[in-house]
Amino acid sequence: MHSTESRILVVDDDPTVAEVVTGYLERAGHTVDLAADGPSALRAATQRRPDLVVLDLMLPGMDGLEVCRRLRATAPVPVIMLTARGDEDDRILGLEIGADDYVTKPFSPRELVLRVESVLRRARTVTARPGPSVSRSGIALDPAARTASKDGNELALTLREFDLLAYLLARPGEAISRERLMHEVWGWEFGDLSTVTVHVRRLRGKIETDPAKPVLIRTVWGVGYRFEAEPDVPGTGPDVPGTGPDVPGTEPGGAGADAAVRHGGEHG
Question: The OmpR/PhoB-type domain covers which part of the protein (predicted)?
Fold first, then answer.
């Protein structure tokens, strides 16, 4: 039994999957609410706000992506998606609209419980120990209030985008690998690094003047990403070997850009 009981909303139209997932989550000490479709899920989330939502993307009528959009529009509740194997486009889109994690069907219920615990643990840690306010490069962030702004304009960030920005802002000028971001921001020991790539790309879309030519969150090839405390104006600063904005079709880390192109990786 957990010292802090969590309420989990499970949204799946397959009664067998819902029953198995519910059983494992309840044995792990959580309270579970069930919904079999999108409208029911939104009503349940309004009536009793969940601490986390386990959401199947393949729902009748209103699909899981639309449910996720509407949930994210009302409150920053963590969402774990259940996706079919091979539905990479839906998985990437789900992450881009604010889902925190995904589990691919068929899945181990124990794996799902571990993912739930990881996301909840991260959310509790951030709530319990908010860091100091910080302001750099026109970005102001208040971890205690969970607010962020760019040049005085409030930023609409998901839970994970906020945590990612806070982590990068606290380490200006430091090259940070995607593996380290996955461990420190997501709380995962291992996982699909494209999750980090997607969140970085989405965060750039919200804080960069030109997301196609990022000057705040720079890619460090073969390493990961670096937040520029005082970014150069494009075309005026010196060239720095091994850094720069992304090139389509590549992503940092691993064997470098060429390997990423050969494998068709997402760009960060």
Answer: 131-229
Using alpha carbons only, give the angle 133, 134, 140 rounded to the nearest 5 degrees. 100
Do residues 67 and 50 touch, judged by C-beta distance below 8 A? no
Q: Is-above-0.90 flag for pTM?
A: no
CA–CA gap between residue 174 and residue 6 (Å, rounded): 36
Cα distance between residue 70 and residue 67, in whole Å: 5
What band does 76 get if pLDDT is binned at 50, 70 and 90?
confident
Q: 252 in a domain, yes or no?
A: yes
DSSP 214-230: -SSEEEETTTEEEE-SS
Residue 240's closest CA among 252, 248, 249, 231?
Answer: 231
Phi-psi category of residue 50: left, alpha or beta, with phi > 0 → left and psi -120 to 50 → alpha: beta
Half-sphere exposure of 3 (CA within 13 A, CB side): 2
84-143, pLDDT tens digit by residue? Answer: 766 677 777 777 777 888 888 888 889 899 889 888 887 776 554 556 778 888 899 888
235 and 116 in one domain? no
Q: Which domain holds residue 169?
A: 132-262
Q: Does the residue 267 lie in any domain? A: no
